Amino acid sequence: MTFIPLDHRRVQTAVIGDKYSSDPVILPMGHHELDRWRKLHPDLTYWCGIQLGGCGGELSDRRYTDKVCHFAHHPNAVCQRTANGESSADHLFIKRGVERLLKRQGVRGKVSTRDLGTGPGDAVDLFVPATRRRVRFQLGALDYSAWRHTDDEFAEDADGVDWVFAQNGPLTHELLCRQGFSLRVRLATHGGERRVHIGASAHGHPLHWTPLEECTLTPMGLLTSPLETIHLSRARPQPTGFPVQGSLTFAPVPGALGMEVVPLELEDRHLIVAYVKPVDSPVVRAHLSLPADTEAPRPGHVYRVPEGARILVADGGSGWVLTAERYLRLNADEARRTGLWSPSSLPASTCERTPIRGADHEGMTEGRSAESSQPTTQAETAAVQEGALGSANRRAENAERARDLISQLRPLEGALGEAAGKQVTRAINGAELWLAAVTNNHGGAANEGGRYVRQLELALRAAKHDLKLDEHSTRSGAAGQAQRAAPATLPEPGAP
Q1: Within a 13 Å sphere around the CA of 46, how many CA atoms are in the beta-carbon half?
Q2: What does DSSP assign to residue 11?
Q3: Complete DSSP assignment for 31-79
């Protein structure tokens, strides 16, 4: 007598028709439900399908009243199938659901299952040639490295990929940070069917599930009603960033041009080139992103970012940018201590000249400091000489004196505070208008020379006070004064 062992495997899923079929079925677990199933489908045959990882043998349905109904192999069958439970055919139910969605929308696409090393149910792929979109239903486990490799492969022939995960984990959080939303998939049993649902979640939005048949395939990808709202309302995700420890100081590079193509999405920001010095680190020339609702930093000044600076890195290593939300301008003493600025030589001919505006005679001295409110001895001397000398001599001496003072003030103009800077600019513009009139021999110009010389001397005194330079320093010639008072041209750092 031959001993026939009982088949103790409770196989819940099968395919219909033959062993190569991709048409899945889940056997109803209750005996009353199984009875109704048999009446509705009397001619069906069930197989341990190859696409289930099965042996290909025929199965029979077993009805029980005291335990769960299930499929069973025929006697003496040998099968190495490891996934027999309720979810073991989910990849085939997803494949069938996607094919029905394509047919209902009239869209041509290719749907295939993938064995990624643990069985044929690891993933389901959809590719829509017309829109060059892919959808990956990731049912098996996946780490970041494998995900990144696959995503890069998809990018070779697709314009976009929707990743839909069966499990919540680090990768769903990664996509939430990258694109502002993430997608999930789950299946629920109804009779002999497993119905597919798509979940969409975003920052500020709860996870919402939608039946697959109510979703839409668009050029933007797989959309649900909540996902359409998320696409319209979600904020643009921020680039990947790393915090900078401590504070940093920076000085804008005069005349430097920013990147023609910015590798990061930095809309509504100032993007400048600056010499940047983090705490206890060498100086580096870098691109710096600052809020657009603040005044853009000016060359000739040094600024401090007290905290919160970050390094934004473009995916793939194509570029990086420093970013800060708050910064403070340092005074002359603080700026000098950073090493990013000093009152060393800068030829006046290299300075960017302020356009000449019409002189506002009534407001010419507005913004003077209290220290600069009294005329200097030099100004009084110039006034006496103007009355004593002839018209031609006065004109020549005042013009020479005005040009000399302008050559001293121009290098200081960009490093001054707001009040002193305005006073210097007014004095220079007024004097240059007068010099233009002298050059063109306009009548009455000579009588106004002493006034503009006085305003220039007062402006120079206010500038020295603002920069905390030596009030009693003397010089012979404009070049000597510029050497002591002008801000330095910042050197090219050795750092990259």
Answers
A1: 21
A2: B
A3: HHHHHHHHHH-TT--EE--GGGT----EEEEE--SSS--EEEEPTT---
Q: What is the pLDDT of residues 474-483, one digit of tens each?
A: 343 344 444 4
The tokens describing 405, both together, are 């003072």
Spell out the residues 6+ positions from residue 93 whose beta carbon is closer than 8 angstroms to its own: 24, 187, 193, 194, 195, 196
Q: In terms of pTM, does the model score above 0.85?
A: no
Taking the C-alpha atoms of residue 383 and residue 453, their distance in angstroms, rounded to an integer, is: 9
Q: Tokens representing 101?
A: 């969605």
pLDDT tens for each residue of 4-53: 344 455 789 999 999 999 999 999 888 899 999 999 999 999 999 999 99
Rounded to whole angstroms, how far apart are CA atoms 470 and 123? 76
In the chain, the N- to C-terminal Cα span, in Å, equals 86
* Tokens describing residue 246: 């401590």
Q: Which long-range contacts (CB under 8 A, 24 or more apart) does 56-60 make?
A: 56/19, 57/19, 59/11, 59/14
Q: What CA–CA distance (Å, rounded) separates 424 from 467? A: 13
Using the predicted structure, report yes or no on whether residue 422 has a pLDDT greater than 60: yes
**Cα separation of 320 and 309, whole Å?**
13
E-strand stretches of 306-354: 310-313, 320-323, 328-329
- What is the identity of the amino acid at 238? Q
Q: Which two tokens stand for residue 272?
A: 């400048």
DSSP category for residue 89 = T
210 or 1, which is more confident?
A: 210
Structural contact between residues 268 and 339, judged by C-beta atoms closer than 8 angstroms: no
List beta partners, residue 245.
Answer: none
Sequence-ordered list of residues with C-beta below 8 angstroms from that of 368, at least 6 positions apart, any chain: 423, 458, 462
Side chain identity at 90, as an amino acid letter?
D
Q: How far is CA 339 from CA 100, 159, 332, 492, in A?
A: 69, 49, 11, 13
Decide if pLDDT at 349 tops 60.
no
Provide the 10 A C-beta neighbour count for residue 92.
24
